[in-house]
Amino acid sequence: MQNPVVHTATNLIYPDAISTERISFLINVKGIDPNVAELDFELLKQKLQDEEEGMGWTVEQVDSAEIEYKRYLNLCMKYGKGIVPNKIMDQTWHYHILDTRSYHKDCDALFGGYMHHYPYFGMRGEQDAQDLKKSFENTKDLYLELFDEEMARDEHTSCWHDCENRCWNACPSK
């Protein structure tokens, strides 16, 4: 947390709002739709960094998670249902959902209504598992098409979040 904002009435400390430089980077370098790029996840990123309440991620990890989650939201905006998140997107989504007011407001702004999470896709038998895998492969293709990058890149191979992108196999380091 760089220059925290202290709310004078309650003495609560808040991180700085997302910077215009960060928004510009997300739009111009990472190819994220401006409506998604402008979402302020600084408090969410602070939560993810917390050792006890979050994931204990570093600043670099939460910055990467923000990009991936915003790209997931961008894919959902553009293509609708059937987009399957990778593990880092899904974990960040879970933390976003926990901030119910922010999540509801952000969903209204992006989708015109609440985007529900169905965590059981792939668990209801062999056909469902195959459908999940097929949908995830389609998501990877759409990701490449929209962002001109593979969803699994070199910076995502250290197992801090997602060895195989959907962890179809056990991580070799576990």
Q: What does the secondary structure layout of this molecule look like, with pairings?
A:
Blueprint: E1 5-7, E2 12-14, H1 20-28, H2 34-37, H3 42-49, H4 59-79, H5 87-98, H6 100-111, H7 126-147
Helix pairs in contact: 3-4, 4-5
Please explain how this structure is put together.
- The chain has seven helices and two strands.
- The protein has a two-stranded antiparallel ribbon with strand order 1-2.
- Helix 3 packs across helix 4.
- The model is unreliable at 157-164 and 166-174 (pLDDT under 50).
- The longest helix has 22 residues, at 126-147.
- The chain is mostly helical and 174 residues long.
- The chain has one domain (21-156).
- 51% of the residues lie in helices and 3% in strands.
Structural class category: mainly alpha
Give the low-pLDDT segments. 157-164, 166-174
Mean pLDDT: 85
Number of helices: 7
In whole angstroms, the N-to-C terminal distance is: 32 Å
Key features?
7 helices, mainly alpha, 3% strand, disordered C terminus, two-stranded antiparallel ribbon, globular, 174 residues
